[in-house]
Amino acid sequence: MQTITEMMSTAESGIRFASKLAPRISYSVKDDAVPIAGSIPTAYRRLSLLENLGLATVHRSQFQINRAARQPMHILEKLIPSLLALKNARRFGRKYHVSDINFVKNNLPENSFVTLDFKAWELTKYQTPQDFYVYVDNIGETSEFLKSNGFSEGTRGHIVLLQKHSSSKNTIEQVYLDCIAKGGRSILDAITIGIKYGDQLNVKGRFNIDDILKVQSDMQTLP
Amino acid sequence: MNRLANEAVAITKELGDVIFIGALAAYMYTKSGRDSQDLDFVTEKPLSDDELLSKGYKKSITEKQPWFSPRGIKIDIYTSDIPGVSFDWIVKNSRKFPVGKKGSIRILGLESLIIAKHKAARDQDIEDLRNIAQRKLGEIDWNLVRQITGDQFVTDNIRRDMKLLST
User: Fold this and answer.
1) Interchain pair A220, B63: CB under 8 A
2) What is the C-alpha to C-alpha distance for residues A63 and A27, in angstroms, rounded to an integer?
3) Exposure pattern of B103-135 as b/e (b: 16+ CB <10 Å)?
4) Of A40, A48, A130, A169, which is least packed with CB atoms within 10 Å of its CB?
5) Of A88, A25, A84, which Cα lies nearest the Cα of B166?
């Protein structure tokens, strides 16, 4: 099994490739990747390296880059476990309602811990949660437990199982890194955690200044 | 998000037919998404400080958008174009949504919302666009998108991105 340093080293050419792309929602392999990579096969090799780390998704001749790829290398290294956990996450639903979340909350596997939406909400009260992300020791066992209780695996459920990794700890920093790795609205959670719990973080992500100002402004209460 | 939708109903009753944009608009189309701390809306006619204060709205002295609703929700008020969408199209392409049993609110049109979020393209906008793409792709009027943007190239880009986000 590769160490994180080895993974970073393997993916280095992919990460350098991603850093040369102008920030956009999606890209074309032919029009955007080939001019940087040099050829179509090299472009797909670079994208494959990024896909392995959960930093790119390729669909036919189009692709997306996870903006976590734009974090500095020393942060990106810390994000790798979160990125891999999210890439291999499994999603479940039963009634596709809050009752699904309540069921899992009441039946949490031993040593599991909650992250992202619900944990960020508990820490910051900034954005209401939507999906229940939980790290478990054995994702296979927990998914069997859910299935035996009427849950189905798919893409729309609100329960998301993440495989615990050796370095996962139930800490604020873990939630912070998970938020950066997931991207989307979770970036606002990460910024809020950074503002409220900065003294408990050993790493500091790089964020868009407009997003930081938005969070600071939203956190203002009545005069 | 119901909390903000109910707040939007109250604001509509107090300030008239304002048009809600941003996260609430995305939620009304998808019934999915995370509730943030503020409401953004466009007004057809400018609201004076006196008018807002007389209706119980409170002003912060530290902010560029310095208002809070009487119930303490932060509000951002727009009185002109938003990125990618002219004021005329904001009004013309808006639609009413029922909220609860008696209330209703006016929301930015789906096509305008997509254009504005595509133009902003922050992480949270991309997540909202993904939600919309996965649930409403078939309902987008691309001719209308073309009319609002006034640009076929921009329209094609938005269409391509929305298709990818729907996968």
Assistant:
1) yes
2) 5
3) eebbbbbbbbbbbbbbebebbbbbbbbbbbbbe
4) A169
5) A25
pLDDT of the residue at B59: 86
Return the CATH number of B2-109, one of 3.40.50, 3.10.450, 3.30.160, 2.60.40: 3.10.450
Report the residue of A185, A186, A195 to disrupt the B interface, i.e. the one with the largest count of B CBs within 10 Å.
A185
What is the C-alpha to C-alpha distance for residues A27 and A143, in angstroms, rounded to an integer?
35
**What are the residue ranges spanned by the domains of chain B?**
2-109, 111-165
- Give A157's contacts (C-beta < 8 A, 6+ positions apart): A91, A92, A93, A94, A96, A100, A151
Burial of B54 (0-12, 13-18, 19+ CB in 10 A): exposed
This prediction's pTM: 0.91
User: The dihedral of CA A185, B3, B31, A87: what is its sign?
Assistant: positive
**Reported CATH class of domain A4-70:** mainly alpha
User: For A222, which of B58, B129, B161 is closest by C-beta distance?
Assistant: B58
Distance, in Å, from the CA atom of A46 to the CA atom of B138, rounded to the nearest integer, reads 33
Nearest to B58 among A185, A188, A223 (CB): A223
* Average pLDDT of the residues in A187-194: 96
The predicted-structure confidence for A32-59, as pLDDT tens digits, reads as follows 999 999 999 999 999 999 999 999 999 9
Residue B113 tokens read as 């919302």
Residue with tokens 């254009």: B115
- Give the E-state strand segments of A71-205 in sequence order: 90-93, 113-115, 132-136, 152-153, 159-163
pLDDT the model gives residue A57: 94
Query: Which among B122, B130, B166 is the top mutation candidate for probing chain A, defined by the most A β-carbons within 10 Å of its own β-carbon?
Result: B122
DSSP string covering B122-156? -HHHHHHHHHHHHHHGGG--HHHHHHHH--HHHHH
pLDDT at A221: 63
